[in-house]
Amino acid sequence: MSHTALKESVLEKVQAAKQAARYLGTLREAEKNAALLAMADSLRTDRDFIFQANEEDVKEARKSGIPEPRIDRLVITEKRLNEMIEGLHQVAGLEDPVREVIETIQRSDGLMIEKVRVPFGVIAMIYESRPNVTVDAAGLALKTGNAVVLRGGKEALRSNMALVDALRKGLANRHIPVGALQLIDRTERESVDILIRAKGLVDLAIPRGGAGLIGRVLENALVPVIETGVGNCHLYVDRAADPDMATAIVLNAKTQRPSVCNAIETLLVHEKIANEWLPAAIDALREHGVQIRGCRKTQAIIGEGNLTPATDEDYAAEFLDLVLAVKIVSSIDEAITHIEKFGTRHSEAIITEDREAAEKFLTQVDAAAVYHNASTRFTDGFQFGFGAEIGISTQKLHARGPMGLRELTSYKYRIRGSGQIRT
Amino acid sequence: MSHTALKESVLEKVQAAKQAARYLGTLREAEKNAALLAMADSLRTDRDFIFQANEEDVKEARKSGIPEPRIDRLVITEKRLNEMIEGLHQVAGLEDPVREVIETIQRSDGLMIEKVRVPFGVIAMIYESRPNVTVDAAGLALKTGNAVVLRGGKEALRSNMALVDALRKGLANRHIPVGALQLIDRTERESVDILIRAKGLVDLAIPRGGAGLIGRVLENALVPVIETGVGNCHLYVDRAADPDMATAIVLNAKTQRPSVCNAIETLLVHEKIANEWLPAAIDALREHGVQIRGCRKTQAIIGEGNLTPATDEDYAAEFLDLVLAVKIVSSIDEAITHIEKFGTRHSEAIITEDREAAEKFLTQVDAAAVYHNASTRFTDGFQFGFGAEIGISTQKLHARGPMGLRELTSYKYRIRGSGQIRT
């Protein structure tokens, strides 16, 4: 496809989304909820077609040698489809944030200024191979009155087409313009660039995936972007830590689900507690299958031969696996400085019984979620009680940490007068 | 200067700002207020030096043929310096938004999640020739615990250096690290690019100026940006408008201060009221020195020879001058569609006694501020009661419309536990 034809094909969908967006902003909650349930019904009705499309994707992915963990993310099992359907039901049950009056300013001249929550308009989602993102994003966007343009991974295209086809039937059944839900079916990387440069049409782009995907989007976007997901999280065990609590939390934060962004990647240990606490903690981690990469001081304690040395590359890595870097620090300041240098501003925790040290850590560590005496694994829209999650923001503009429905809205000032002019 | 040397010179300042930022976030309100007053005192003490530097800038600007309106923006008069000083006093009097607990979530397992307001960290301001922005930005950043890196227009460099020098003396007098306030003294355009691509160091960039400046920043930035200021605003006079109110408001919105972003640039008139209302309204506008550019239907009413025809270019223009495009529309929908096509999402107004039409306009027009029966000139942080304004956002991410102190903050989740792990 020529560049011009590709551009036309992408922008046509974005324009259709924008047209639908104006109408979506006026929908009442009951209409949106009915459509969400109809979308869920359609997924159920079209299940065979969806499984078939997914099987073709999986077969093709295997043929082109895509590694098994990525194929696992691609597969739509019976259970996963049911979870997608259940997810739409859950979103229908959440409170609609649109039209909330956030603040009222009454001027002495009678002018009434209301700050009111509104949809963004058109949201572009750029993601990788998980087809559940397709359904999640469609549901959350509709609930918040946004049109959405989806650009999923190449290897999931057939699955996404089948899912979107079903979801649009649900919309149509409830007389919602199907323009509200768009899927970019072009697999050229350039189609992403066209989407994220469509200023005036796309109000927000949310990349969801690895550091490579997010970096490319930031590099090329002209529309506002929310960075999500990359989590190089740390647990700092202070000199005044309760040793048993520290062990329980490091095991949980590293091993309960190592492949997710809120799992820890580096353990920082105060030198005053390291001799006493670290050997048993490392034994426990190893029992859970964790490979340790340690700094020199860690090696000195554990025995050099027993440990892979940790490099700066390890400290910078988001392993997403049963691998943990361990570094002994001589002060809380060194821990904070290490986190500032290597952290991705996601989730950071301190274990200590020293209240002052805890407050210092909570205040000075710059991250979406800072924890005292708890596992980083709680950074999650469901755990925070949002009822839904579109991603976890690691930037500071607009939304930070787990993003639920409210984070998918903007606001406007609605001002009512009786002829007021400025003098 | 070589690219490498320029990059080093800019990044050195950004790094110094980042280092200061960690400390600024811990400052108490009283300390920040004392420093703001000390900054104001320094401006007073250094006034002669500031005026002298500014005179040199103005002389140089005249020599290089910079047009008079831009030179006028550059001049620091006695009155303007006093306003800058007064501005710092006002900011000291405003409430500090930092550390506000926005929300508390208590989980059944005892985990206590607090959403707390925090500074961004390092803010980059990119602006043109007005030196008052230097002082405003320095004051608002300090009050919100942010470090700020300023990059003003080339022609104001000597003035900005003198101002920043004085402001830093004020900081030093109150033992605040002067790293908190940085001025990029390189005039190469590339220095802006280095600043807005300093990911991990700069948390937010705010360009303030014309469409050209803002477009360049969006094109090149890797850090989050808030778009500000470009205002192509409309007044729509509905068929059910009160004619006298409509005249009073169009005059105010166009002529009270035509050079600002919340002044209107296009008047849309419903055809059912145009014959009766428009001729007298245009006479009144002309009496105030306004040049009219009209659509065909306007020409038919006013007389073809009496009117410059309006083109799409006129509809897209932010005149910032006593020029007004006039278009007659056959419905409120046509008005809304015109605004969607040409507006910059800043401020839009409808004049009508028809409540339903008003609600439709307020809901469907996508802009930071939507008005019913009032002038667009109220879109302003001071008019909204914020007590300060760093700019007017025309995007939907994070902040929309006038940005005061709160809009210069982010939030983090501060979570306190007693050993909670995720099961």
Automatic annotation (TrEMBL), chains A, B:
Q: Which UniProt keywords apply?
A: Amino-acid biosynthesis, Cytoplasm, NADP, Oxidoreductase, Proline biosynthesis
Which EC numbers characterise this protein's activity in its record? 1.2.1.41
Q: Name one GO molecular function term.
A: glutamate-5-semialdehyde dehydrogenase activity
Enumerate the spans annotated as Aldehyde dehydrogenase domain.
5-287
GO annotation terms (biological process): L-proline biosynthetic process
What InterPro entries would the database entry show? Ald_DH/histidinol_DH (IPR016161), Ald_DH_C (IPR016163), Ald_DH_N (IPR016162), Aldehyde_DH_dom (IPR015590), G-glutamylP_reductase_CS (IPR020593), Glu-5-SA_DH (IPR012134), GPR_dom (IPR000965)
Q: What class of enzyme is it?
A: oxidoreductase
| Reactions this protein catalyses | L-glutamate 5-semialdehyde + phosphate + NADP(+) = L-glutamyl 5-phosphate + NADPH + H(+)
Pathway assigned to this chain's UniProt record: Amino-acid biosynthesis; L-proline biosynthesis; L-glutamate 5-semialdehyde from L-glutamate: step 2/2
Q: Where in the cell is it found?
A: Cytoplasm
Q: Name one GO cellular component term.
A: cytoplasm
| One protein family per Pfam | Aldedh
Q: What is its main location?
A: cytoplasm
What function does the entry list? Catalyzes the NADPH-dependent reduction of L-glutamate 5-phosphate into L-glutamate 5-semialdehyde and phosphate. The product spontaneously undergoes cyclization to form 1-pyrroline-5-carboxylate.
Family to which the UniProt record says this protein belongs:
Belongs to the gamma-glutamyl phosphate reductase family.
The protein's name is Gamma-glutamyl phosphate reductase
From what organism does this protein derive? Lihuaxuella thermophila
**Name of the coding gene:** proA
